[in-house]
Specification:
The protein has a single domain, classed as Gcn5-related N-acetyltransferase (GNAT) (Aminopeptidase, 3-Layer(aba) Sandwich). The chain has four helices and seven strands, in the order βααβββαβαββ. It is globular. It starts with 10 loop residues before the first strand and ends in a 16-residue tail after the last strand.
Length: 169
């Protein structure tokens, strides 16, 4: 049961072709270099990428996340919430869907980059079990900025600690 005054729960579903225009609109509102609809369609190619979208009860897309797949890792390419729906759980919901998807695929880890200045996103990722694993200098343009590399282990590998860093032997 939803508490009085609380926003209605979001439905999270797998990204499909019908969602692409709305997701592209979210991209344009959130990022200085948004993905095109054509680029977003790469997330629909089975075995190459996967995406999830958060929908309101009326079917309106309010957030999405996508990752590209490698044999042992998911590279999270984007997590975004429509500006009017930030801090309402859309980003967390789609991120959790990606984490669950990656675990079901038995991936070893998830990796992402986030702007150093994006404290809300970094806080979200830390709260979902990611650790800060490095820095990519000058990774972003428009404006130019470093990226924090964040990592979440989904299963242990020999030689790596739970924090994702190699152990001394």
């Amino acid at each position: 049961m939803t508490e009085p005054g609380a926003p209605p729960p979001l439905q999270v579903t797998r990204l499909c072709e019908a969602h692409i225009p709305a997701v592209a609109d979210i991209e344009r509102q959130c990022f200085s270099q948004p993905w095109s609809e054509q680029a977003l369609r790469l997330l629909l190619i089975d075995g190459q990428g996967v995406g999830y979208v958060a929908l309101e009860a009326d079917g309106r897309a309010v957030g999405y996340a996508g990752m590209f797949l490698a044999p042992d890792e998911g590279q999270i390419a984007s997590v975004a919430a429509h500006p009017a729906f930030r801090r309402r759980g859309a980003g967390r919901a789609v991120l959790r869907a990606l984490i669950a998807d990656a675990a079901a695929r038995e991936l070893e880890r998830l990796v992402l980059e986030v702007r150093v200045s994006n404290r809300p996103a970094r806080t979200l990722y830390l709260s979902e079990g990611f650790v800060e694993a490095g820095l990519r200098r000058g990774f972003y343009t428009h404006p130019r900025e470093d990226a924090v590399v964040m990592l979440r282990r989904l299963r242990e590998e020999t030689g790596a600690g739970a924090d994702g860093r190699e152990r001394e032997t």
